[in-house]
Amino acid sequence: MAMSASFCPQISHYFRGRIAYPFSISSPNSVSFRAFSSQISNASAQVNEATRVGFLGIGIMGSPMAQNLIKAGCDLTVWNRTKSKCDPLISLGAKYKSSPEEVAASCDITFAMLADPQSAVDVACGKHGAANGLGPGKGYVDVSTVDGATSKLISGHVKSTGALFLEAPVSGSKKPAEDGQLIFLTAGDKDLYETVYPFLDVMGKSRFYLGDVGNGAAMKLVVNMIMGSMMASFSEGLLLTEKAGLDPKVLVEVVSQGAISAPMYSTKGPSMIQSLYPTAFPLKHQQKDMRLALGLAESVSQSTPVAAAANELYKVAKSHGLGDQDFSAVIEALKAKLQNSSNE
């Protein structure tokens, strides 16, 4: 179903009233915008099964996240532009609605996991978008990775309906999503955070509350900027090791046992050596996040030369048709550079 951001009007005011929720909600005595985190030790978080939950966007991340909610006993309603992607969830007991508006209208809380800022705006604010089905007593949680301006735009539109809004982008890719090991970086309405954290605990291993809308988006972009730069540097190391006559497999082992150890290296390294890039986090999304992070840096006059250089490498990889492969395929852009150099 096509949606257009042109249906999202300018927001002239924000809803500031207290909401009486029809479902269980914890109201803190005082709202603190100091960032705090929670590590989740209970692998099977308890959710309110009477709460009707919606999930918009059934892709690489959304599908396993929604599946974990179903396994936890959630009354789940789903939507995706390509309906067939919802079929496995429907077979597990999920309901299906034909538009984001219908999902939001039928649910107490609606989660959205979309691929990019434009999609996030279209699904929330477009014709038949979720905001058309929202109102007092409902909550909208956007777990997509977007820039702060986009998150604030969606927040304003959601809150103008009387609903509450929480941004909650995730750190983690396909496997952590499947295992319920995501990290949520939340910001926005504290009351909604207190309501939805049991659902976040089903899908993740930890959650951070960071205050005002935009802070969660900014933190996620910084995290992905670092990750993208690390992968570019790791790719250079693998190729340099091989060119120096060393075994790149040994490099992976050495790195995994030292101070710079990161799960990403030991997970991605072996397949990168074989020139295999099974998609856990598409390269085109990594480049999008790098671009958004550079925009964030520009907005606060922060120099990011390493990330800027890495971003150019991801752009080259995209130009070679690698956008839908895993972001570790960025190593192929370096291989192409080396090949061109050797031919000169």
UniProtKB/TrEMBL annotation:
Entry's Gene Ontology cellular component terms: chloroplast
Keywords: NAD, NADP, Oxidoreductase, Stress response
Pfam families: NAD_binding_11, NAD_binding_2
Domain 3-hydroxyisobutyrate dehydrogenase-like NAD-binding stretches: 214-333
GO molecular function, one term: glyoxylate reductase (NADPH) activity
TM helices/strands, residue ranges: none
Catalytic reaction(s) noted: glycolate + NADP(+) = glyoxylate + NADPH + H(+); 4-hydroxybutanoate + NADP(+) = succinate semialdehyde + NADPH + H(+)
Keyword tRNA processing: no
Coiled coil location: none
Active site: K220
Family: Belongs to the HIBADH-related family. NP60 subfamily.
PANTHER family assigned to the protein according to its UniProt record, in alphabetical order: CYTOKINE-LIKE NUCLEAR FACTOR N-PAC, OXIDOREDUCTASE GLYR1-RELATED
UniProt function note: Catalyzes the NADPH-dependent reduction of glyoxylate to glycolate as well as succinic semialdehyde (SSA) to gamma-hydroxybutyrate in vitro. May function in redox homeostasis and play a role in oxidative stress tolerance by detoxifying glyoxylate and SSA generated in glycolate metabolism and GABA metabolism, respectively.
UniProt protein name: Glyoxylate/succinic semialdehyde reductase 2, chloroplastic
Organism: Acacia crassicarpa
